[in-house]
Specification:
single chain; alpha/beta; globular
Length: 266
């Protein structure tokens, strides 16, 4: 009887916890994207049918966070390349440089970040990554995104460099990633978002269906540049850390082509 009571109390607690989370997810609402904003997104080459907006920010390509101010500063370029590995026009400058990363999340996320950092540092780039224990030291902060991101279909997000600095925030939805058991898979996800922060875009931008499935979907220039990286393939680049989609349980350490791309840019 005592065991049943304990189980009953646990079940009640879980129901109450779920109710609180459910209420929290139901309160925030996605904002309607104005027609002129969708027109700008479409002009930049993005799929305007898949844009989401919350708190004055757009979420494009599944994990790229762009403010409305940033959108106004973007402009499409001519003659988009159709290659695999590529980077944005704006990169991190002032190299050689140390990029400090602060993780405001549970220990497993810190462990996964350490693995991601070790992968970058093993390439002897002009960027050295270092995990710090204080937010005041951080160039990039990795923190939990609101629970409702999961319901919006946004599992993680980052942005691209501006003014020579890496994008400063990576958001990870704990309601999803807490359930990932493969620490190396989680490290790949974090390394992917770090890649965006320093200027790398999806390697299958010309056809996201390569990694995501579904119908062909070309991301286009996006107004931030799509610059082919010499020495990288012009066809699909299997297992790249910057593929648009992938299982969070799947580990994708840097391929030889990834290493070429990283070495060329940094």
């Amino acid at each position: 009887m005592r065991r049943l009571n304990k189980l009953g109390f646990l079940a009640l607690s879980l129901v109450m916890l779920w109710s609180c989370q459910e209420n929290e997810t139901q309160n925030p609402q996605l904002e309607e994207v104005p027609a002129d904003v969708l027109a700008k997104v479409a002009a930049l080459g993005f799929n305007a049918d898949e844009v989401k907006m919350y708190d004055g920010h757009l979420f494009i390509e599944g994990d790229i966070k762009v403010s409305l101010d940033q959108l106004d500063r973007m402009s499409p370029s001519e003659g988009l390349p159709v290659e695999e590995h590529y980077h944005t026009d704006n990169l991190v400058t002032g190299t050689p440089r140390t990029i400090n990363v602060y993780v405001n999340m549970p220990q497993k996320y810190k462990d996964a970040t350490d693995i991601a950092i070790a992968r970058y540092n093993a390439e002897n780039l002009n960027l050295t990554f270092n995990r710090v224990s204080s937010s005041g030291q951080a160039d990039i902060t990795i923190k939990a995104s609101p629970w409702y991101y999961y319901w919006f279909g946004i599992l993680g997000s980052a942005g691209f460099p501006e003014n020579g600095n890496p994008y400063g925030t990576i958001l990870m939805t704990r309601g999803y990633y807490d359930n990932v058991s493969n620490i190396n898979g989680l490290a790949t996800t974090i390394a992917h978002e770090m890649g965006h922060c320093i200027g790398f875009r999806h390697t299958d931008y010309m056809d996201r269906s390569y990694s995501c499935g579904g119908t062909p979907d070309n991301e286009g220039d996006g107004g931030v540049g799509a610059n082919h990286i010499p020495g990288t393939p012009t066809g699909p680049s299997a297992n790249s850390w910057m593929l648009a989609c992938g299982s969070p349980e799947g580990d994708r350490p840097f391929t030889n082509d990834d290493k070429t791309a990283l070495g060329y840019v940094y």
